[in-house]
């Protein structure tokens, strides 16, 4: 059967233009009838307009549902919004404008389904009709309320504030199995290929060879649909082998192959026109005269119409002879294409079974390792390894929430060369990590780069360092503690796991389920371990100041000295004494003295690095361990602490008085060979600062021999 594609394309283009013109004319007619109040008492024209309007809405809706289009174009969105708005206006006129408050909900729904431009057009239509038809003192207020309800409710629905997404007018796409390495440019056996992939290649190649033996042809090509929706040449046989564009990835939107893709029917061409547009698989002009192309449709449930089946490939056969293909050749190509579809379907089923087994094994290994460790760090490493391997992710990151400080901390990333970013604080503003934390629900984006809001995962600085701009598909799943049903308590979010791919390869429901199970299982261990660490932390803290106690100070000093020996570093010990604390106790009472000690402890925490260790040494004395700090650095830190206390007036029950500190410092290993001697030398320096009149900073190295002798 012969087809004239160019003629049909012209018809299609004309129909498209006529359709748009019809919508415009119909809209103008309906608006004119609304101004004439024709819908309050129906006549021939108003009834005809209503029937045409409803028919247009139904026709466009069914056309979209039955099409393979992923998203509505802007023109289609505007058309839908105009049609639905006019239907609403007719209902308003019939009701005598009593239903106008429903527009406060209608327009945000238009934002959700059709976008902001469509909602803007609907707002203009509704407002203009209200202003020109009805004269009421409250009308300006109604229009303002309509504007605010559209913007605010539309933002909440469309803006993903709580990861609310509408999938009604966005058709989902499941993740396809990885068969994209079946490329013609790499037909040689690959050592890394699975047995199933090799068998798939061989079976497809055998089918094409059979077709070559049955039909005299110049070239036979098999295009396969890739994960990104483009088509690539998976295999071919050609007498012009050197002129086949093996590496191309194309989208068939027009020409003969575009028609095959759209109609999902074979095309037989006996006189080729526009060779460059239709024979795009050649790199030079080849005098091909005949072409036969047929779609490969995936198997579906019994009774599913052909229009609903997915096109996974196109099989093409061409010849330099004219009128060489007929109904017999068309039937043969159709049978071979069905055979290749069966081969691919069998491969998909095999890979799915294999993937399911792999997921079960990975989950079993995960739970086994989880039960055999007592370290949060080990669990996080295990999460990163498991999710990266099972979900084929290019990046996995974990953040944990520090309840005491109220901040999210990036704790683990899969990129080892960037692990210096671990420990970074994640900003609160406009980050997806915080969005998931607050919403307590997962976030899943097919293409992160296509988003206009909430594109940052960890904050601009961390994202830049990690190269987040190269990420496409991303899944962020919260780690939420499990609360027994008998406990009336709200579950807390402990953190979140970020799983990302650099290609647009959306996470399907099965993969989201795997992330859910792993995060859920991990949450129990992480919560238990964090609670244990909290209890352990309380055991080593001073109850009054919140600083470490004397016993933990001794442990940390021994650790710091050993670390300095191992890495050939300096370490300094700072001993601090609050001047005249006895006078404060005697004059204002011991409660005032306790307040002073608490105040000094707070200033110490604010003045030091996270790596520094501050402790209450005993009574009115404090100790600070400064790892990797020499004499000069320790003097700077000590002076900063002393000035901070002195320049910050202390108030107690309306009384204000000045607090000063005496500080002594010693540095390891210059001033002492071990931690016990280091304490003695720092204490000697503290004694000297007291002797010099208090409110002084003295380093042991600066004490003269005469002073040491005394």
Q: What characterizes the major β-sheet?
A: 6 strands, antiparallel
What spatial form do the alpha-carbon principal axes imply?
flat
Average pLDDT, rounded to a whole number, is 80
In angstroms, what is the radius of gyration? 37 Å
CATH topology of the largest domain: Beta-Lactamase
Q: Supply the helix-strand structural class.
A: alpha+beta
Give the class-level CATH name of the largest domain. Answer: Alpha Beta
Adjacency order of strands in the biggest sheet: 3-2-1-6-5-4
Proportion of helical residues: 40-55%
β-sheet strand percentage = 15-25%
For the record, the CATH architecture of the largest domain stands as 2-Layer Sandwich
* CATH level-4 homologous superfamily of the largest domain: GAF domain
How far apart, in Å, are the first and last alpha carbons? 116 Å
Please count the helical segments: 20
Indicate how many domains the architecture comprises.
4
Low-confidence stretches: 1-10, 67-71, 159-192
Strand runs, count: 19
Name a few traits of the molecule.
Beta-Lactamase, disordered N terminus, 710 residues, 15% strand, 4 domains, alpha+beta, six-stranded antiparallel beta sheet
Structure, explained:
With 710 residues, this protein is α+β, with helices and mostly antiparallel strands. It has helices spanning 5-35, 44-66, 74-94, 103-114, 116-133, 139-158, 195-214, 255-263, 275-278, 327-371, 376-390, 432-439, 460-466, 509-539, 550-567, 581-588, 590-607, 631-646, 675-691, 705-709, and strands spanning 219-225, 231-238, 249-250, 267-269, 290-297, 311-319, 395-402, 407-413, 425-426, 443-445, 474-480, 493-500, 571-578, 613-618, 621-627, 650-652, 655-657, 661-668, 697-699. It has a six-stranded antiparallel β-sheet with strand order 3-2-1-6-5-4, with helices on both faces. Strands 9-8-7-12-11-10 form a six-stranded antiparallel β-sheet, sandwiched between helices. The chain has a five-stranded mixed β-sheet with strand order 14-15-13-18-19, sandwiched between helices. The longest helix has 45 residues, at 327-371. The chain starts with a helix and ends with a helix. 33% of the residues are buried.
């Amino acid at each position: 059967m012969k087809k004239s594609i160019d003629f049909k394309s012209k018809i299609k283009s004309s129909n498209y233009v006529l359709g748009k013109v019809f919508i415009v004319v119909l809209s103008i007619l309906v608006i004119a009838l609304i101004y004439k109040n024709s819908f309050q008492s129906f006549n021939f024209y108003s009834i005809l307009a209503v029937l045409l309007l409803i028919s247009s809405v139904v026709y466009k809706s069914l056309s979209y549902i039955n099409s393979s289009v992923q998203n509505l174009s802007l023109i289609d969105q505007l058309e839908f919004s105009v049609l639905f708005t006019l239907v609403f206006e007719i209902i308003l006129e019939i009701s005598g404008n009593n239903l106008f408050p429903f527009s406060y909900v209608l327009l945000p729904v238009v934002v959700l389904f059709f976008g902001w431009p469509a909602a803007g057009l609907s707002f203009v239509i509704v407002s203009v009709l209200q202003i020109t038809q009805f004269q009421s003192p409250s009308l300006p207020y109604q229009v303002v309320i309509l504007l605010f309800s559209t913007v605010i409710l539309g933002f909440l629905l469309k803006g993903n504030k709580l990861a609310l997404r509408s999938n009604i007018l966005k058709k989902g796409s499941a993740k396809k199995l990885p068969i994209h390495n079946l490329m013609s440019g790499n037909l040689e056996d690959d050592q890394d290929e699975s047995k199933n992939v090799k068998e798939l290649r061989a079976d497809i190649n055998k089918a094409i060879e059979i077709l070559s033996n049955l039909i005299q042809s110049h070239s036979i090509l098999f295009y396969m649909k890739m994960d990104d929706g483009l088509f690539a040449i998976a295999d071919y046989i050609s007498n012009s082998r050197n002129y086949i564009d093996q590496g191309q990835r194309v989208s068939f939107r027009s020409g003969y192959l575009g028609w095959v893709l759209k109609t999902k029917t074979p095309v037989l061409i006996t006189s080729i026109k526009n060779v460059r547009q239709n024979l795009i698989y050649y790199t030079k002009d080849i005098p091909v005269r005949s072409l036969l192309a047929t779609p490969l449709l995936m198997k579906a449930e019994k009774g599913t119409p052909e229009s609903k089946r997915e096109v996974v490939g196109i099989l093409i056969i061409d010849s330099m002879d004219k009128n060489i293909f007929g109904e017999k050749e068309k039937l043969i190509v159709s049978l071979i294409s069905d055979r290749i579809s069966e081969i691919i379907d069998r491969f998909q089923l095999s890979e799915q079974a294999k993937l399911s087994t792999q997921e079960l094994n990975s989950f079993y290994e995960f739970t086994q390792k989880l039960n055999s460790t007592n370290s949060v760090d080990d669990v996080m490493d295990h999460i990163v390894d498991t999710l990266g391997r099972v979900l084929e992710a290019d990046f996995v990151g974990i953040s944990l929430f520090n309840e005491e400080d109220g901040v999210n901390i990036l704790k683990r990333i899969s990129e080892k060369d960037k692990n210096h970013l671990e420990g970074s604080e994640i900003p609160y503003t406009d980050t997806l990590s915080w969005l998931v934390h607050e919403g307590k629900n997962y976030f899943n984006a097919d293409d992160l780069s296509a988003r206009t809001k909430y594109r940052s995962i960890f904050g601009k600085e961390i994202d830049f360092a990690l190269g987040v701009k190269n990420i496409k598909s991303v899944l962020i799943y919260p780690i939420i503690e499990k609360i027994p049903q008998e406990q009336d308590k709200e579950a807390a979010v402990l953190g979140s796991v970020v799983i990302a791919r650099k290609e647009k390869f959306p996470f399907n429901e099965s993969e989201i389920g795997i992330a859910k199970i792993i995060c859920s299982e991990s949450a129990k261990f992480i919560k238990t371990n964090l609670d244990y660490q909290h209890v352990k932390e309380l055991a080593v803290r001073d109850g009054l100041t919140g600083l470490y106690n004397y016993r933990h100070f001794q442990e940390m000093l021994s650790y710091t000295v050993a670390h300095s020996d191992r890495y050939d570093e300096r370490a300094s010990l700072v001993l601090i004494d609050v001047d005249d604390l006895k006078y404060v106790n005697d004059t204002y009472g011991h409660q005032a003295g306790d307040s002073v000690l608490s105040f000094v402890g707070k200033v110490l925490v604010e003045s030091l690095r996270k790596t520094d260790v501050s402790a209450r040494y005993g009574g009115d004395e404090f100790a600070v361990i400064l790892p990797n700090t020499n004499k000069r650095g320790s003097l700077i830190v000590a002076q900063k602490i002393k000035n901070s206390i002195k320049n910050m007036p202390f108030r107690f029950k309306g009384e204000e008085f000045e607090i000063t500190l005496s500080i002594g410092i010693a540095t390891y290993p210059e001033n002492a060979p071990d931690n016990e001697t280091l304490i003695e030398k720092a204490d000697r320096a503290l004694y000297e600062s007291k002797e010099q009149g208090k409110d002084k900073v003295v380093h042991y190295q600066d004490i003269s021999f005469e002073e040491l002798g005394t």
